[in-house]
Amino acid sequence: MAKFTLRINGTRHEVDATETMPLLWVLRDFVGLTGTKYGCGRSQCGACTVHLDGEPVRSCTTRISTVGAREVTTIEGLSSDGSHPVQRAWVTEQVPQCGYCQSGQLMAAAALLDKNASPTDAEIDEAMSRNICRCGTYQRVRKAIHRAAKEG
Amino acid sequence: MIKIRKLDPMNRRDFVKLGSAAGGGLLLSVSFPTKSARAAEPAHLDFDAVDMLGDGFQPNAFLHIAETGNIEIWVGRADMGQGVRTSLPMIVADELDADWNRVTSRQADAHPDKYGRQMTVGSTSVRRGGWMPLRRAGAAAREMLVTAAATQWAVPASECRTEMGRVIHNASGRSADYGALVGAAAALPVPEEPRLKDPSEFALIGTDVPQVDTQLKVTGQATFGIDVRVPDMLFATVLKSTVLGGSLESLDDSAAREVPGVRDVIKISSGVAVVADHTWAAFEGARALECSWQADFAMSSSEISTHNARLCEGDGVVAREAGDVGTALAAGTQRLEADYEVPYLAHATMEPMNCTAHVEADRCEIWAPTQNPQGTQRVGAELTGLPIEQVTTHVTYLGCGWGRRSRTDFVQDAVETSMKVGAPVQVVWTREEDMRNDQYRPASMIRFHGATDANGRLSALSARVAGPPLGVTDGPSRGDGADRNAVDGIATLLYDVPNLVVDYCRSNVQVPTGYWRSVGPSGNTFMLEGFIDELAQGAGRDPLEFRLELLDGHPRMKHVLQKVSEMCDWAAGPPKGRGRGIGLVEDKGGIVAQIAEVSVADGLRVHRVWCAADCGQIIHSGIVDAQLTGSIVTGLTAALYGEITIDEGKVVQSNFHDYEMLRMSDMPEVEVHIVRNREEPGGVGEPGVPPIAPAVVNAIFALTGQRLRKLPIRMA
Questions:
Q1: Which of B37, B208, B297, B387 has a CA between 20 and 30 Å from the CA of residue A54?
Q2: Is B516 on the interface with A (CB under 8 A)?
Q3: What is the ipTM metric for this complex?
Q4: What pLDDT does B15 receive?
C-alpha cells in the first residue's frame, strides 16, 4: 500500500492503494466517480476511457502508480452540466441506447476533436474503433462527432 | 381505485426530503446516497418513489398528477436501451393530453401485480405490456379531469377539450391547468371504459421527442447496477466452476485472504465469493484462489455438432405440417438438400452481471440491472425466507440486456453473499466469469430438403431442427413436444409452401441455454433464408421474385420486401465488385427485410445495409430507427464473429479479444425505412436481428458463388 495524490477533474484526492490498482477502480470505488465503466479489464472495449493530460487512456489497465502528476479527466469532468460540444451533439443526435459504453465513447470523441477539429469518417473510425458499443450506436456516434466538429 | 396518500416523514428513511411547494402541494426530492456528489434533482431519480408522494391525483399505479400540474409516470418494464422509459410514458401522456415537458418518467420497483408483468423479454413492453393498459390509464385520468372541470364550471363535459395539460371550455373561454383540478378529479370514480383516441388524434405517439435519459447518459449520471452505492457496502466477485455444471471439490483461499482489501472468502451455491473493500481487491482475491471443480460434463464443440447431425438421422417431433412433402419432393424439378448450422452465442452485455443486495433480519433490499424485476424479488424472498412485501427490488439502468438479464443467477449471488456477511454487498462478475457462465443461444442445425416445380416455384420444404431447448440445464424438460423457441422462425414461416414439414429433434447437451436477442429466429432465419436463396438460385430465379411470389397471402410482408428492394434499386444490381443478398423475417409481430451489399476483394466487407420494417403502430420513431440499426449490428456481429466453443466441458472464450464485437471501422452504412401504419403495435427490439446474417451470406453467394451454411462466416 502507498499514498497517491491524484488530480481528478481539477480536485486533489489523496488515495491509499496498492501500486498495481487500476485507475478505473480508484475512480469508481474510492473517489465515487461511477460514470467511468468497467467492461473488460484488459483494454479491449474502451468503456473505461478517461483522459490523462488530455490523452485518452484505458483506465482499467492504467495503474495508479503510473498516473503521477497528470490531470485525470473523467466524464464527470468533461463538463459539469453536459455543455461540452460532444455531449451537446450526443443529445441532439440521440446517440445512447443502453448508455453503458457512452462515457467512454464521449471521452474518446472529445480527445479526437481536441487534436483534430474536423475529422474525416476514416479518422473517426480510426480513433473510435477501440470503443465497443454492443447496442450498435456507431452510426449516430459518427454523426454526432461531425456535428460537434461543426458546432464546436 | 383512487389512492391519495399523505406522506408521513417520520416513516421515511433520511434520504427523502420534503418541502412545501408553491400551491400547497408537496415537493419531493429523493437523493440516493453515493460517495460522489451526484445531483439529487427529481428528474434524476432512478428508483421508485410511488410510496413517497404527497397530495395529488393518482388514478392508477402508473400515473400521478401533482397540484403543481407536474406529472409522474411509472415504467414497470426495464430499460436496456430499447427506450421504454421514454416510450411507455409517451403512451400515457398522449391519451392524457399532457404537456410532455412536465412529465417525469419513473422506474417502478418490482411488485407482484401492481404493474402487470414486468419481465422485459420478447419485444413485449408495448405490444403485450403497455399499449392498451397505458392508453386506458391516460384516457381515464383525462376523463376525470374533464369531469372535474365541467362540474366546476357547470358546463357539459362534452363541450370541454384538453390540450397540453389543460382543460379548456371554448364557449366560455375558461381553462384550467390539470394541477388545479387534481383535488376534484381524485374524488371521482375511475371510468372503466374511457374513450380512447382515434389514432389520427395522436400527438406524441409516433413522434421523435428527445428521450428522457439522454442527458443522464452523456454526463455519466445514469445509475447502472454496477454504479449502485449504499452506505457501508462491501464489494464481491464470485469464482465459478471452470467446467460447465461443475461443483467445488477443493478450495485453498490462503493466498486470496492475503490480498489487501479482501475481507472474507465464502462458499455460496454458485461458487466461491470473495468479499472485499473494493471491486479490484475482490477480483485480485478471486485470481488468487486455488480451486478444483468436479464435473460430469466434458463434451467439446465438434462432438456437439456431430451429436446434432446424428439427431437429424432419427425421428423428430412435428411442429408444422402441410400437404405431402414426400410426394412433392419426389416430383420436384429441382431437389436440394443441405445442412445449416449455428453456434452457441454469449450475450456479452456491456455491463457484466452484477447485483447489490442488503439483507437484514426483517427486510431485504435489492438493486439489480434486471429484465426480470418480479423474479428478482421472488429470489430475494425465497432465499431469505422473508414475505415478498419485505423484499424491495429496485430496477437500475441495464448496460444491455439481450435476454441474459431475464435470469436471476447473479441476483442469487448477491443475496446469498449479503446474508452470509451481514452487510450490503455488490457482487460484480468479471468479464471472464460473465462470458463463461452465460445462458447461451443454443447451437443448432437444420437439415433441409426442398424442391421447386417446373415453374421454378417453391413446391416442397422439409426442415428438421436439431438442438437443445432453452433452459436445458434447468431440469427435466417440460414435455416431449417441439420446443417453441427452437423452431421459432421456421415453424412460423409465412411463405406459401404447399407441402411443408418442420420437425424438431431435442438435444439434451448440458450447456446452459437461454433467451438471446430475437431467440429462435436469430439462428433459424439465417438457415431458412440461406436455403430459400439456394432454391431460388438453383431454379435460376431472381431471389427477390422467388420470395415475392410466395407472399401473396401476406401483403404486409410483401410490401416490406418490395420496399427494401426499391431502396437499393435491386433491379439495377450492385456496383461492380459487389454482391447483394436478401434476408426477411416476421418475428414477434415485427416484419423486417434487409438487403446487404458486400465485397470480398480485400477480405469480406459489408458496405451497406438497407432495412425496411413494418412494426405496426410505432410509439417513437427515433427509437425504432435506433433499434433496427442496432439490431443489424447485433446480427452482423454474430454473423462475422460470434462463436462460443466448448472444449472438454469448458467455455474457451473469455473476453472481447476472443469473442469479438463489431466495431466502428466495420460499421456498414445503414439506411432504415419504417413503414407507417395503424396496425397493432408489433415488436421492435428484436425482429431486426435475424435477417442480416442471411442477407450477407446470400450477398456473398451472389458475388462469388460460394454458399456458406454455417456461422460465423469463414470465407474459403
A1: B37
A2: no
A3: 0.98
A4: 27
